[in-house]
Structure formats: structure tokens, C-alpha cells
Amino acid sequence: MTAEPSPQSPWQAATITRIQKRTPRVASFWFQPTRPFAHLAGQHVDIRLTAPDGYQARRSYSIASAPGGGIELAIERLDDGEVSPFFHDVAAVGDEIKLRGPLGGHFIWEESDGGPILLVGGGSGVVPLMAMLRHRTLRNTAVPVALIFSARVWDEVIFRDELIGLDDRRDGFDLVLTLTREPARRPSDYSRRVDARMMAQAVERLPKAPRLAYVCGANAFVSAAADALIGAGVPAGLIRTERYGV
Amino acid sequence: MVTRGFFSGRRPPSDTDTRIPPGQYLEQGFPVLSAGPTPRVRTEDWSFTLKRGPRPLKTWNWAEFNALPQSNMTRDIHCVTAWTKFNTPWQGVMIDDILADAGIQPPTAYTLALSFDGYSTNVPTKDLVTGKAMVALLYEGKPITADHGGPARLLVPHLYFWKSAKWVNGLQFTERDEPGFWELRGYHMYGDPWREQRYSSDP
Ligand SMILES: Cc1cc2nc3c(=O)[nH]c(=O)nc-3n(C[C@H](O)[C@H](O)[C@H](O)COP(=O)(O)OP(=O)(O)OC[C@H]3O[C@@H](n4cnc5c(N)ncnc54)[C@H](O)[C@@H]3O)c2cc1C
Q1: Ligand 1 close to Cβ of residue A105 (< 6 A)
Q2: Does pTM surpass 0.95?
Q3: Closest alpha carbon to A202 in A234, A171, A160
Q4: What ipTM goes with this model?
């Protein structure tokens, strides 16, 4: 079983220790929880903000860091949003934020799950997939992985240098970028929305049929990508999804 | 306690905040959540089965099920991912009417709702009967779309919405309170939004 029930995960204070801009709209935030916890690749935390009158807003954010690598969240700024603009415009190193985790027992990849695995991410949906890739690299396993990452433009490819660096190692990881509003830059890349043909080509890059597929992003993206995987012959029962909502 | 610099302009209107459980925010849209791809179940292939343990008690096909008495429920719904949506209008068959058509009383205290995609979720039987829950067939007067769980989904509006199993194809009465799909993965066995029972470690 990959799925462990979440251990005790009460709300606790966590201090922001570092902030790094990743793309024009995404920044990474590192947190030091008062009571550190171990997470699995793919899990998320919940964040809770409290206004002076007691009003609270809470949202979920996937953990981008590999197990053992601290807590990095990568948050995309939605201009008319409530919580994500707070992180981009207000939050600073040293601030304390209420956080709860690790959460989620389904959208998880562990080394013992094996492979090959197919990862499909749209925009900030790449975050939990990044944790899986980093975990794979740290564990130094040969599990074959293909990541299909859809972004609007080249400059919005989150973790771009790191992903290309991993791709260059040629150790069984294949990066496929698809840009929906710009021409492709690399020979293996596409310039369109994800579809069944793209998924079929990604499956062909793997040495054998995928054991699991993970799809993450906004709801419309996840629906389209999961349907595309099914269209490419990936059995529905192997596809795990994480939907970021709207 | 207070988060430095957080002054949200987004507060529920004061006449509605007694309807929003703790930690929830009001949503106008209808977000979609599920663990896997959206199954497309054709009504020709649809069926609904009541079971006690492994033993089937009665099965209905789509036409038979639609011929059962239909009721309306308009309810506020609460998703564990923190949105609440007011006044969602559903039409379907009350669990009471399904049991009556099968000619049975609830045989055990616990129930697992089962779905076409292998999903399951546990609900105490008493939370399904006496007008509390239905198998919904219509939303806003129209067939429920596949992404919202159509052709039929369970509706248990007083619990977090993952308990309202999408693509439902049966109810299984169990002797013990058996965890379903999400409950095995760290979510709460009961899921009362007013007590904020989101995760298994919540009281
Ligand atoms: C398991 C999980 C993991 C996630 N991981 C990540 C992650 O790694 N990175 C990431 O960036 N996001 C992630 N998300 C999404 C994240 O939780 C938030 O939904 C996101 O940051 C938007 O929150 P917000 O408060 O900024 O926007 P919200 O205020 O929630 O608004 C979201 C959008 O909906 C509209 N909207 C919704 N309600 C209203 C309203 N009442 N009034 C006006 N407009 C409204 C807005 O137009 C806005 O663009 C994840 C979600 C889940 C469920």
C-alpha cells in the first residue's frame, strides 16, 4: 500500500525562512515548522491566515521539496485571489504562518511504487510532481519517468533550469514541455494543449507501459489530460489526479 | 494568532455567516474534485444495488430507478477543500424510498456507498435515512454531468461533500464502520463540517 493514513497533523506555527522568485507569477516559500514533520512526495499542507477580526482563510499547497528536504511551497499569484496575493505582496522572511500537514494519502509516489511513471502537470500543478522527481533523484533510482509539463510560455516554466538539468542527465527521466502560447524551443517539445497523441508519444518514450500516471493542475487541465491519457490507452485505474479547483 | 498584514476584503455577508461552517469560504462556482479520471457511465449500463455485506438485496436498472418516487432537496454543501456553496438544488430518490421499494428496514448501523470507479465512502446508516440523504439524478433540473458524478450521485449534504459519492452504483450495509477510499487515506470517518472533522486526527 502506498497510502498511509495521515499521521497527527495539528495546526502549528511555521516560520518563512526564504523566498525565491521562480517565474513572473510564481515564487517559492520555505517554511520551518515549530514541530518538523516527515512528508511523502506528492503530499500537501494547509495554510491558514487570520485577519485581526478573527476572519480566516485557508488553502492547500503542495510540497515541492523531496521528503527530507524541508518544506518548500511554490505559490502562483492569482491577481484576484485572496491568499496567493498575500504571499506575493505581504509575506516576508521571518513571518509566522499557521500550517498543517502533511496531508493527502492518494497523490503520492514512493520508490516502492516503482515505475515507469508518467507525470502530467499544468502550471503550478507541476509542484507535487517536482517533489516526486526530486525524490527520485535523491534516491538515485532508475525508475523511468516522463514529465509532460504544460505552461503558457517559456518564462512561466516553473523549475525550468532544474528540470532541464535533470533531463540532461539522461538517467531515465524525460522532460517534455508543451507551451500553449509560444512556439516550442527544444526538439522534444510541443506548442499546443495536451492531447491523446502527445500522451501516446510520451508513453512510447518509456521502456514499457506506465505503472502509474499522476495528473495535477487546474480542474479543466486535469480533466483534459486524464481524458487524453485514456485516449492514449492508459487504463483509468492507473491514473491519479490532484485538482487545484477553479 | 493574527497573521501579519492579512486584511482580506472577502468576508461572508453578515446575514449568511451562520450558514458557513468553521474554516469554510463561500463559493459561487461549483469546483470539481476526484481521485482519478471522470468515468463516463452510460445510463444503459447503469445499475444500483443494495447489499448486505457481499450479498445483493435488490438491483435496479436506470428505468426502474427513475420510476421510484422523486424528491427535491435544496441544501448548502460543504467541501473539505474549504468551499461552501449555498442552495444547491437536487432531485432524486430518497434513501428511505429505496429501502421501501426493496421492502427492507436498514439491516445494519453502517453503510459504504460504492461507485462505478471503485471509490467508496462510509456513512452511518442513520445519516442516510429519515429524509437526510438521496441518490440524486438531477442538478438544477438537469441530468448531473459526468464531472459532478452523473448519471447519479449520493447526496448527504450535512456531511463534507466527499461523503456524497459520485457515480454511485450501490449501498452496502456493513456490520462495522468500515473506512472507504478517502477515509483509508487520512480523511475523517464521519466528516461533520460544523465540527471541522476533515482529517482522521480531528476530534
Ligand atoms: C491539494 C491542493 C494543492 C494545491 N497546491 C498548489 C500549489 O502548489 N501552488 C499553487 O499556486 N496553488 C495550489 N493549489 C491551489 C491553492 O489552494 C489556491 O486555490 C490558490 O492559491 C488560489 O487561492 P487564492 O486565495 O489566491 O484565490 P481564491 O481567492 O481562492 O480565488 C481563486 C480564483 O477564483 C476566483 N474566486 C474564487 N472565489 C472568489 C470570490 N469569492 N470572489 C472573487 N473571486 C473569486 C478568483 O477569480 C481567483 O482567480 C492547490 C490546491 C489544492 C486543492
Answers
A1: no
A2: no
A3: A234
A4: 0.81
